[in-house]
Structure formats: C-alpha cells, structure tokens
Automatic annotation (TrEMBL):
Its cofactor is Zn(2+). Pfam families: DHOase. Residues 47-234 form the Dihydroorotase catalytic domain. This is Dihydroorotase. Binds 2 Zn(2+) ions per subunit. Keywords: Hydrolase, Metal-binding, Pyrimidine biosynthesis, Zinc. One of its GO terms (cellular component) is cytoplasm. GO terms for molecular function: allantoinase activity; dihydroorotase activity; zinc ion binding. It catalyses: (S)-dihydroorotate + H2O = N-carbamoyl-L-aspartate + H(+). Belongs to the metallo-dependent hydrolases superfamily. DHOase family. Class I DHOase subfamily. NCBIfam families: PRK09357.1-1, pyrC_multi.
Length: 425
C-alpha cells in the first residue's frame, strides 16, 4: 500500500501542516515531516476536509442502470469529495428486503470508490400500505439504520408511528420525504406568484410543513429519531426550530439546489429545474441559508437524482423531478457559505456521519484516524460541463455556470480514489 505525504495543507482551515497517510490511516501530522517511501503531494493552498458524507443519494441500481449505477454514482461521489454515500431505496426492485440492501451494499464494496450505505424502504414497495422487513434489513450484512420511502411520503400517521417505534430497538432513524400527497396532486412547481403567472399547478409550502409538524410531534410522543429530507421552506425551518427547542430528536437536511436556486427558474420551462420538493422563493432560500448556519438544519445532503435523457428532456409536465448533485455540492456550499471550513466540515461530513452512524467517517484528519479525507482547492473556479461529469446522467442545473472550488484528491481508507482532480479508476 502506497504511503502519501501531503505537504503544507490546511486541515479544516487551520495553519498549514504536513499529513502522512500510511496503512489506511493518518499516521502523522506536523510541520517538516519526511517519509522517503511516500508519494509527495504539494498541498500548498489546499484545504483538507474529512471525506464528505452524503445522507441522500439516488444510485438507481438495481433497475435504472441507464441513468446511474452504483459504480458510476460512486465515481461521481469521489470526484465530489465524498467518501460515503447513503443510497436511497426507490430502486427497482425497491430496497425493501435484506436481499436488495445486501445487493446494493455488495455492489458498493466491489466498486470500492466510496462506502455505499443502503437505506431501506419503510413500507413494502414504497406503497405506504405495510411496514417492510425493517428488522431483517437492520440485521443484514448491510446493517441498515436509515429507512425512507423517499420519492413518496409515509403519509399514514399510524404507519409512521409504528415505523418510528420499530427502529428504536436498533437506534435507527426514519428519513421522511415530507409531502402531504392530497395537497400536491398534479403539482408541477412551487405554489406562488410564478406558478400563477405560468399557469402551472402549485406545490404549496404547507404540504411540506404540515407533515414535518405532524412527524416531530409523533417523534416526540414515541421518543424516536426522525430525519427530514430536503427541507425547502421558511415555514419548515420554524417548525424545526420549535421542535428542537422542545428537545425532539429530529435532524434535517437541505440540498445545494434549495440553497441556491429559486422558482423563477421555472420561467425557462427547462425541466432540468423540475425537482421535488420544488425550488422555492428567495425568502425561503434566505431562511434555509440562515438555518444551516445556525444549526436548525443539521446537514447539506445532495438528493443526487440522476435521470435518463428521455425522462428529462421532454415537456415540463412529463419530466421526472430531480437533479444531479454529487459533483457540484462542495462548490455550491463554498459559494453559499464562503470559506467557513469548520462549518462546511460539520454540515457535510461530521454531522451526516453521526446521523448515519458511519464509523470511521466524519473525523477530522488526525493521527490514528482512518484516512477518509478530501483535498479542496478553494482558489480555482471551474465551469460545469454536463458532458464531463462522471454521472451517467446529464441533468445538472449548473450547466455552464462557473463555481468556486475544485476537488483535487480524495482518499478512502488511505487509498486515493481521486488524484489531480481525476478519478483514479
Ligand atoms: N428529488 C426528486 O425530485 N426526485 C427523487 C425523489 C425524491 O428525492 O423525492 C428521485 O428519485 O428522482
Ligand atoms: Zn424526496
Ligand atoms: Zn431523494
């Protein structure tokens, strides 16, 4: 196993130091390190972060390997600075059995580019009718701890309660896609001024907020852990703030796109901007940014949602919702938060690793720690070219935008997955 000596790198924004990576761990840190057998990387101007952890990734395998595979999504993740991703359950077949989660877990191991942690479905077939075999998925080789029907809301309050109660036994968490389905029938975009002008059916903020309010009360009642996927409205932030003040065990994520883009993008009628929950208003964006800085929102999660060309390059109403995210998330975070490295490390690595219970991830580079880390060049700006992305899909909303920051290298347990900004395999 090759050793790597990274010279003069800033660890999470601190004064430059050297990092020696050997045998899968950070062996030593300090100024003036030497290691004759090591490959030297010049870290001048670079920032070392704990490898990013994505709590919300769609890898599309099994079932839609034309849009993404575990391997292509893992490569996109590594290039984005990630060392672990949690793979959503809305595959085909659905990841609602021990067999399917073990298959995804095994494919992740074989690709070997990031740790792929499968998320299990809450209900059989994501149909919302009966609980899936949560215990069997938890006990499987994939050791599932996060369960979600993402793409669909667990709308039945009794089923949601039972799921919350069930996962307590193994310190699991239910990740809710908060969308009251009766309030979003036929919805195409955020319900507001722009939807009225364009004549598109609206997805009202209250459809999200009502479910979050219900579920934080349920989580409080049964004393379970709840996670809220892709929070998108100012009102949701207020509900979460209230719940956290009461000590409810709730965590929440925001996506890069909800931190940057607004519903005015729908005026282009370009379905690349169609996403669930929809892009909201500038007021919502400001509230989400403030909540992320404050900690009312715990993490940034990509909701990387690859879609094949035929599902995206069509009329708005027929297009599938969802956007790519893994290869651009750090750049968006840097753009939105500025070089607040400790905050970025917390929201994109440490906190998601804690929520997912991923040992060995989310730890700042220090002696003895598994070498899961990424090197960022904050000074370089790059223009996003969809054709250059490692994802099998092309549905990035940032095409031809120039964004700050470039991932120079990523290490998974001491092995580089990315070097010189390029995937190693
Ligand atoms: N976000 C999306 O618009 N789409 C996701 C599902 C989801 O996250 O709800 C997908 O699977 O494509
Ligand atoms: Zn969702
Ligand atoms: Zn999703």
């Amino acid at each position: 196993m090759t050793a790597y000596l990274i010279k003069s790198v800033s660890v999470v924004g601190a004064a430059p130091t050297d990092l020696l990576i050997r045998d899968g761990v950070v062996a030593e840190t300090g100024a003036g390190l030497t290691a004759p057998d090591a490959t030297v990387i010049d870290g001048t101007g670079l920032v070392a972060l704990p490898g990013l952890v994505d709590l919300h990734t769609h890898l599309r395998e099994p079932g839609r390997e034309d849009a993404e595979t575990v391997e292509s999504g893992s490569r996109a993740a590594a290039l984005g600075g990630y060392t672990a991703v949690c793979a959503m359950a809305n595959t085909s077949p659905v990841a609602d059995t021990a067999g399917v989660v073990e298959q995804v877990w095994r494919l992740g191991r074989e690709a070997g580019l990031v740790d792929v942690q499968p998320i299990g479905a809450v209900t059989v077939g994501l149909a919302g009718g009966q609980l899936a075999e949560l215990g069997a998925m938890a006990d499987s080789a994939a050791r599932v701890r996060i369960f979600s029907d993402d793409g669909h809301c667990v709308a039945d309050p009794k089923l949601m309660r039972r799921a919350l109660e069930y996962v307590k036994a193994f310190d699991g968490v239910i990740a809710q896609h908060a969308e009251e389905p009766r309030l979003t029938e036929g919805a195409q975009m955020h319900e507001g001024e722009v939807s009225t002008r364009l004549g598109l059916t609206g997805w009202p903020a209250v459809a999200e907020e009502a479910i979050i309010a219900r579920d934080v009360l349920l989580a409080e009642h049964v004393g379970s852990r709840l996670h809220i996927c892709h929070v998108s409205t100012a009102g949701s932030v207020e509900v979460l703030r209230h719940a956290k003040t009461r000590g409810v065990k709730v965590t929440a994520e925001v996506t890069p796109h909800h931190l940057l883009l607004t519903d005015s993008k729908a005026e282009t009628y370009d379905p690349v901007y169609k996403v669930n929950p929809p892009l909201r208003t500038a007021t919502d964006v400001a509230a989400l940014r403030a909540a992320l800085a404050e900690g009312v929102i715990d993490i940034v999660a990509t909701d990387h949602a690859p879609h094949a060309v035929e599902d995206k390059e069509c009329e708005w109403a027929y297009a599938r919702p969802g956007m790519l995210g893994l290869e651009t998330a750090l750049s968006i975070a840097l753009d939105v938060l500025g070089p607040q490295w400790d905050l970025i490390a917390e929201r994109m690595s440490r906190a998601p690793a804690r929520i997912a219970g991923l040992d060995g991830h989310g730890l700042d580079p220090a002696p003895g720690v598994p070498a899961n880390l990424t090197l960022v060049d904050p000074a370089t700006r790059r223009t996003i070219e969809p054709a250059e992305l490692a994802s099998r899909s092309r549905n990035t909303p940032y095409a031809r935008m120039t964004l700050p920051g470039r991932i120079v290298a990523t290490f998974l347990r001491g092995e580089p997955t990315v070097l010189d900004g390029k995937a190693v395999r």
